Amino acid sequence: xxxxxxLIHKSYMTFLPTHYPVHFYGLPDGxxxxxxxxxxxxxxxxxxxxxxxxxxxxxxxxxxNEVLVxxxxxxxxxxxxxxxxxxxxxxxxEVRRDIETYPKAVEYISDLYKSNLLxxxxxxxxxxxxxxxxxxx
Length: 137
Description:
The protein has 137 residues and is α+β, with helices and mostly antiparallel strands.
C-alpha cells in the first residue's frame, strides 16, 4: 500500500518549541502537516513526551508534482526549507501522548487523512485553488 504522506522537510534546528526534529509532510488534500515531539509535565519533577500534530497555514502542497505552494503571493523561489520559519501560522489539530515514535506518528498522520478523506468532498477544489498561485514570478 502506498504511503499517503510525503516528507517535505525534516528540521533538526527549529523555531518551534521542541528539542526534537520537526517533520513536515505533504498530503493529497493539498495541505502541509507537521508533527513533532515535546516534553510535558506529568507532575512535580516528572516529565514525559507527547506528539503534536498540526496543519501549516502558510503553505499548501501539490502532491502530484511534489511542489510546496505558498498560500499568499510570493515573488521569490520557494524551497522546502521555508516551511520552518520564525513565525509560522500553524493550527494544532491534536496532541497525543500514546504515540512513542516518529514512524508511528507518520502512520497516524496517514490514518487521519484516510479517515478524513471519506468525510470531505471538497479536496479536489482546494487543490485547484492552490495551483492557481504563481511561483517565482
